[in-house]
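Task: sequence design from structure.
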């Protein structure tokens, strides 16, 4: 079980049981006593008030009024916020932009340094631009929620992506590509990738991608994508 999921389970158990012991919690989450003690310390750092009492009848209990005060956000979650702001800004539909920028800056400051570095590397792969008026958007579909969690390791570790793709005629194929950039042309979103089988760049509409997964051990080199002059890096829209 990942630390975040394990710590969430500890909080749920403490809320449900009222009082518990380290040994009982360790058994319920399938971890060692030492791991649970580290998790309890981490939860306290995040704002949860967890008391401990020694002796018979003692143990750990969570203050019922206790709440998390430190946000635990993944790179993909923060990236989702940033690209939402960037896409709205590119489309000219971002109200209260000052407040949005200030909130994003606070979130970034709360991230560990390693996550900030990952976030900036992720942002370097994101571009925005205007959509050509002749592009048909009447068949716009919903994007698979699994896209960003799969894209994060693919872009950060330069791993190939495998996914199912449905073209404009409804024909579905399995694609193996090297992800190079994400392009937002509101309201359309594209994965821009190098297709080794065709030895060329391809644009895949993200609402037509399903079942994405990284191919381990398939590292590739970053390529310079030849974008039009109207397309710019998302960092420019957030400055």
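Answer:
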């Amino acid at each position: 079980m990942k630390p975040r999921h394990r710590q969430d389970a500890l909080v749920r158990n403490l809320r449900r049981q009222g009082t518990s012991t380290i040994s009982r919690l360790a058994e319920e989450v399938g971890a060692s006593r030492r791991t649970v003690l580290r998790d309890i310390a981490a939860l306290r750092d995040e704002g949860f008030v967890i008391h401990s009492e020694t002796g018979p009848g003692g143990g750990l209990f969570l203050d019922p009024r206790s709440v998390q005060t430190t946000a635990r956000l993944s790179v993909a979650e923060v990236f989702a916020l940033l690209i939402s702001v960037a896409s709205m800004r590119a489309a000219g539909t971002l109200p209260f932009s000052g407040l949005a920028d200030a909130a994003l800056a606070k979130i970034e400051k709360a991230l560990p340094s390693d996550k900030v570095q990952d976030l900036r590397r992720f942002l370097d792969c994101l571009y925005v631009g205007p959509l050509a008026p002749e592009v048909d958007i009447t068949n716009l579909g919903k994007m698979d929620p699994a896209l960003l969690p799969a894209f994060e390791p693919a872009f950060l570790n330069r791993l190939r992506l495998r996914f199912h793709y449905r073209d404009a005629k409804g024909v579905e194929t399995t694609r193996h590509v090297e992800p190079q950039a994400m392009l937002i042309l509101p309201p359309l979103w594209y994965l821009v990738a190098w297709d080794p089988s065709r030895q060329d760049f391809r644009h895949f509409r993200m609402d037509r991608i399903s079942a994405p997964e990284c191919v381990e051990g398939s590292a590739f080199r970053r390529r310079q994508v030849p974008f039009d002059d109207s397309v710019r890096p998302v960092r420019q829209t957030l400055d």
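The chain has two domains: 3-62, 75-238.
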